[in-house]
Amino acid sequence: MIRWGWAEPPADGLHAPGRAGGDRTAAASCRFWYRLFGPNSLEPVEDRGGPSAMYSGLVSYPGRAYNPGRGHTRRKARQAHRMANVYYVDGNFVPDAEAVFPINDLGLLRGYGCFDFMRTYRGKVIFIKDHVQRLFRSAHEIGLELPWTETEIADLVQETLRRNPPVESSVRVLVTGGPSPDFITPQGKPRIAIMVSPLSQYPPGWYAEGARIITVPYSRPIPGAKSIDYIRAILVLAEARRKGAIEAAYVDATGSVREGTTSNVFAFQDGTLVTPDRDILHGITRGKVLALADERFPVAKREILRAELVAADEVFITSSNRLIVPIVRVDEDVIGAGAPGPRTR
Ligand SMILES: Cc1ncc(COP(=O)(O)O)c(C=O)c1O
């Protein structure tokens, strides 16, 4: 159990998890979150409720095991990486290597499908209701009628997770258009798959020193749906990597920033926290950050021109897997002083 007695007093600010002054202890990497969301202790999320408890808890254990501070759980996490994961595919639980959809599925043939991505904290999926509801919204937006209820899908997620190694995991719920004899007309028989895999870890430097993003022209079609079409994302992420950036932000034809390929974008402008609201995927993390920020800063959900973004005092991106990442460079422009600012440190 990490104790907070030595930590600095809480101060307002959106602090990402990071490592303080090269100190490599887990406690040091938690300190910023403690300061961000108040003095929450590290009781299990399910006992405490409320997004602030969850967020401080989320990064309190940055490893994949439920408690990586203990040797045997670290070992468990390593073993889990060697073990096969179990997926749920259309009624069956199968080893990941055997998980297949027939090739005439409209998801494969026409990119007709959507998904949601969630993660665990101490073995429990967090914000599962928000994610399952968004899956239904996505399906509705693409005209895919799901024959399951929200509860059935949530229960299937829990059951799939139960059959997987007991480490921190990511969960993808994928629904596709299903079979189609003429290869384009849906038959009203969507397929579902639930994929569990060990949670990815990201370089601590992203959080401590900030990261770089690029901007690219694009508007996602049907932006409110988490559709399975990430072709543009794959292309621009390759470009981002070549340029030493971790993400690419889409800028629409009017010059407004919409979102990242797999993240939402925020900026501090003259003390106001600004984030686009129109034509984006409404990220679950974005929603939680907005709820928390509302108590601390003026918040404006409005357009951000690319020119405004690069001139902002602070920029950060949010997503379920990476949480909050401070951005210190957008294309060739340095944000603020080139280091995570006082509110996104
Ligand atoms: C296009 C897009 N926008 C935003 C997000 C962030 O959403 P969330 O916070 O729910 O992960 C994602 C996540 O993958 C995404 O794909």
The molecules bound to the chains, other than polymers, are: pyridoxal-5'-phosphate
Q: What is the share of helical residues?
A: 25-40%
Percent in strands = 15-25%
Number of domains: 2
Distance between the first and last residues' Cα: 24 Å
Assembly state here?
Answer: single chain
Supply Rg: 20 Å
What is the CATH topology descriptor of the largest domain? D-amino Acid Aminotransferase, Chain A, domain 2
User: Can you count the helices?
Assistant: 11
Mean pLDDT figure: 83
Helix and strand pattern: HHHHEEHEEHHEEHEHEEEEHEEHEEE
What features would you describe in this structure?
The protein has helices at 26-37, 45-48, 51-58, 71-82, 106-110, 128-141, 150-162, 204-209, 231-242, 284-293, 306-310; strands spanning 86-89, 92-95, 113-121, 124-125, 169-176, 191-198, 211-217, 247-251, 256-260, 264-269, 272-275, 299-301, 304-305, 314-319, 323-330, 333-334. It has 345 residues and is an alpha+beta fold. It has two domains: 80-198, D-amino Acid Aminotransferase, Chain A, domain 1 (2-Layer Sandwich); 204-334, D-amino Acid Aminotransferase, Chain A, domain 2 (Alpha-Beta Barrel). A hairpin with a 2-residue loop joins strand 3 and strand 4. The protein is globular. The chain binds pyridoxal-5'-phosphate. The site of pyridoxal-5'-phosphate (PLP) has 14 residues, from helix 10 and strand 14.
